[in-house]
UniProtKB/TrEMBL annotation:
The lineage of its organism: Bacteria, Pseudomonadati, Pseudomonadota, Betaproteobacteria, Rhodocyclales. This is GGDEF domain-containing protein. Pfam families: dCache_3 (PF14827), EAL (PF00563), GGDEF (PF00990), HAMP (PF00672). The keyword Oxidoreductase does not apply. PANTHER family: BIOFILM ARCHITECTURE MAINTENANCE PROTEIN MBAA, DIGUANYLATE CYCLASE DGCP. Residues 296-348 form the HAMP domain. It comes from Parazoarcus communis. Residues 535-788 form the EAL domain. One of its GO terms (cellular component) is membrane.
Length: 796
């Protein structure tokens, strides 16, 4: 059977085996280290004990030899023979006593240190330590020591022969040979070797209990440190030793090396190690078998669950595997069962949410796009047209602001119902057109769409008109009647676009064009798109206009209807494009406000207007300059700080600057807006409400605003003399402002009748083309010197 390690059961078995093998190997290595360390400690302890025993044995032997020598020296017959110079008797005594104590040599020296007699009767053995031993014996009565004599190591004992004063010296020597070393081995339990080493002679072995095969290793050149450590390794057998120095009284170094075989000390550990190794092999085999069985037990259910997971991936949630085991695998199978049921329910819910709007029940943008693609394919096959209608509820934000978002949701639901009734299965009387099921959809917010298969532009306009009329019928929501009007855009396939995305975009362009022109229904015109593209291009170029110094400031004077008010002008930004020429503010200001770039433009206007006002001030002309602040700028916390810095930088008096803000700018965030107005007013400038009457604010907000001026919008001023209603509004506004201590400026003054009537109503300033159109700073100075509307003070 071929083992596939990609399978879980074999990987489990392999991991179990690897873990066990790692533990066993680690245990064996640790076991070997502990065994060797323990054996070394035991050997070292035995060597220390053996060294003490060895020293004690040498001391005892010295005492015994000394006592034997004293017995000979005290023998009466020996002394008489010595005094009578009886050589035969002396020699006989030495021979008898030496044989009895098994001495290796016995020599009798006279007081002149000359040999009198010797045993065995051989050549005289020269003892180099003799003077040293005699000197010691003179002081202590006896002397013992070791000496190398003719290449052999002797233990010597020297005692005086007293009669009653010393008349001779008896020297008894015992050779340190292999039998003596064997005796020491039996007593200490260690290998004993006597080694001689000197600078003039090679290392030699005097006596040893080691086998002859091991003795060469002891004195060979491979063990130069034997006398330093006592340790060596011979024929792969490691010995641990201890060196006992022996004082030979000469230049040679003599030492007794006590050794124990480490292999013998390790023998119990080695046996235990082999037994442990065998047990580990058996245990690993059993563990490998158990891990294979365990891996199969785990892998088999997991394999079945994996197969079921692949079926779930394909969308099959039925027949999950049933596992009888009550362990974690069984719990996992139960969890799979519950999970797939929950996934199936959630998928159903997600599908519903992904393709349907929860508020109106209509298809959402995603499903509508799919419907467009399917309808486009059908229209292409049938060679028919296809219309897409997008509509947006006019003034829907006003409904939310005035009546709340809950009411706005009810309105959207009602719009959805009417779209469904107007667009689904209704026969078009004019052309026999039938819409498909679920053709209406909610794209988001207050935007809806309708798909009209088989329609051209004319038929689509009929459907759009029907929808507009259906939506304009009053809606009774929460016992409140609401009128709704929609702007509808139409795009036709394949006349306008050939893809679903482009068709939707073209319909949106037409819808926004209808909303801007207040025309209700518009069919897509490529020119609309071109104008939008041009505006987008223009917006891109606007970002560099400030850096290229393409923006300029024009100033429109205000006519003071009362004496002593001085000259007031309003700073208006203009854009002189190097290629497009003069660009009206309405072509770029709204887009700058939408993108947030209005902040940069406002800062440029503020800085330029303040700089020009300061120049007039230094020229002796007190000209009050008003400039507009957008809603975005008013909510910037750093605006008062920037304004104060510009005043200080250019040296302009704050009283000459008026900041105009619209009342709707305060409504977006009243708390922050009013806080910034207070900080701006604290700088000393004047504040003015611009375009009063066009917003939706209440008088409570006007009362809270720290303003000094109110400007009436031109829509109420232009027809002041021809529309009584406008005159009522203007008169009421002037009276209200004066009661609140505010000055009033009327915008859009284009006739002298209007100007005269404003004077009669008590208005303070008039502004419009009758007085002057916006002019440059240099032209303003000409206007002050030539216009009949210029203040008398300025003419002078």
């Amino acid at each position: 059977m071929r083992i596939r390690f990609s399978r879980l059961q074999w990987r489990i078995a392999a991991w179990f085996a690897l873990i066990l093998l790692t533990v066993q190997i680690g245990g064996l290595v640790l076991f070997a280290q502990i065994g060797r360390s323990s054996a070394l400690d035991d050997v070292q302890a035995r060597l220390i004990t053996g060294d003490r025993v060895f020293s004690r044995l040498l001391d005892q032997r010295s005492e015994q030899l000394t006592q034997a020598a004293r017995v000979l020296a005290a023998d009466y017959g020996f002394r008489e023979a010595l005094l009578s110079r009886d050589g035969d008797t002396i020699l006989s005594a030495l021979e008898n006593h030496g044989s009895r104590i098994d001495a290796s040599l016995m020599q009798l020296y006279g007081m002149d240190e000359q040999v009198i007699a010797r045993y065995p009767d051989e050549d005289v053995i020269a003892i180099t330590r003799l003077p040293q031993l005699i000197e010691t014996a003179r002081g202590k009565g006896a002397a013992t020591g070791f000496s190398v004599v003719q290449g052999k190591l002797y233990q010597l004992v020297l005692v005086p022969v007293l009669a009653p004063v010393p008349v001779a010296w008896v020297v008894i020597g015992f050779e340190i040979d292999t039998p003596f070393a064997e005796d020491l081995k039996r007593l200490t339990g260690m290998e004993v070797s006597f080694v001689r080493e000197s600078a003039s002679y090679p290392r030699s072995l005097l006596a040893s209990t080691l086998d002859s095969s091991l003795q060469n290793g002891l004195i060979g050149p491979a063990t130069p440190s034997i006398l330093e450590t006592g340790s060596m390794q011979i024929d792969d057998v490691e010995y641990v030793g201890r060196v006992h120095e022996i004082n030979s009284g000469e230049g040679d170094r003599v030492a007794a090396v006590l050794q124990l075989s480490l292999q013998r000390a390790l023998a119990p550990w080695t046996r235990l190690y082999r037994e442990w190794l065998g047990l580990s092999i058996v245990a690993m085999g059993l563990m490998l078998l158990a891990s294979v069985l365990m891996g199969r037990t785990i892998a088999s259910p997991v394999t079945r669950l994996a197969q079921f997971a692949r079926r779930v991936e394909a969308g099959d949630y039925m027949h999950p595997p049933k596992l009888a085991s009550g362990d974690e695998i069984g719990q996992l199978a139960d969890a799979f069962d519950h999970m797939t049921n929950a996934i199936a329910q959630r998928e159903s819910r997600i599908t519903e949410l992904a393709y349907r709007d929860t508020l109106t029940g209509l298809p959402n943008r995603v499903q509508f796009n799919e419907q467009i693609r399917a309808a486009m394919e059908a229209a292409a096959e049938q060679q028919k047209g296809l219309a897409v209608l997008t509509l947006d509820i006019d003034r829907f934000r006003l409904v939310n602001d005035a009546l709340g978002h809950g009411f706005g949701d009810l309105l959207l639901q009602e719009v959805g119902v009417r779209l469904r009734e107007a667009g689904v299965r209704q026969r078009d009387v004019a052309g026999g057109l039938r819409a498909v099921d679920n053709a209406a959809a909610r794209l988001g917010g207050d935007e809806f769409a309708l798909l009209v298969p088989g329609a051209d532009a004319d038929k689509a306009k009929i459907v759009a008109t029907r929808i507009a009329l259906a939506l304009e019928q009053p809606m009774n929501l929460q016992e409140q009647l609401v009128d709704v009007r929609a702007s509808i855009g139409i795009a036709i396939f394949p006349d306008h676009c050939t893809t679903a995305e482009d068709l939707m975009r073209c319909a949106d362009v037409a819808m926004y064009h209808a909303k801007r022109n207040n025309s209700g229904v518009e069919v897509y015109d490529p020119a609309h798109h071109s104008r939008n593209a041009a505006r987008l291009s223009l917006l891109t170029e606007l970002r560099a206009a400030v850096e290229r110094d393409e923006l300029v400031l024009y100033y429109q004077p205000k006519f003071a209807l009362r004496d002593g008010l001085g000259l007031h002008v309003e700073a208006l930004v203009r854009w002189v494009h190097p290629l497009r020429g003069f660009i009206p503010p309405m072509d770029f200001i709204p887009f700058a406000e939408q993108t947030g770039y209005i902040k940069t433009i406002t800062l440029w206007v503020m800085n330029s207007a303040i700089r020009q006002c300061a120049l007039w001030q230094r020229a002796g002309l007190d000209i009050h300059v008003a400039l507009n602040i957008s809603a975005r700028d008013l909510l910037q916390p750093e605006l008062p700080v920037i304004f104060r810095r510009m005043l200080d930088e250019h040296g302009c008096a704050a009283r000459l600057i008026t900041l105009e803000i619209t009342e709707s700018a305060v409504l977006d965030d009243p708390r922050h807006a009013l806080s910034n107005l207070e900080r701006l007013r604290a700088t000393g400038c004047m504040l003015s409400i611009d375009d009063y009457g066009t917003g939706y604010s209440s008088l409570s907000y006007v009362r809270q605003m720290p303003v000094q001026e109110m400007k009436i919008d031109r829509s109420f001023v232009m027809n002041l003399c021809s529309r009584p209603g406008d005159e009522i509004i203007v008169r009421s506004t002037i009276e209200l402002a004066h009661d609140m201590g505010l000055m009033v400026t009327a915008e859009g003054v284009e006739t002298e009748d209007v100007l005269q009537r404003l004077g009669q109503l008590g208005c303070d300033f008039a502004q419009g083309y009758l007085i002057s159109k916006p002019v440059s700073a240099s032209d303003l100075e000409l206007w002050m010197s030539s216009s009949r509307w210029a203040p008398v003070l300025m003419k002078a």
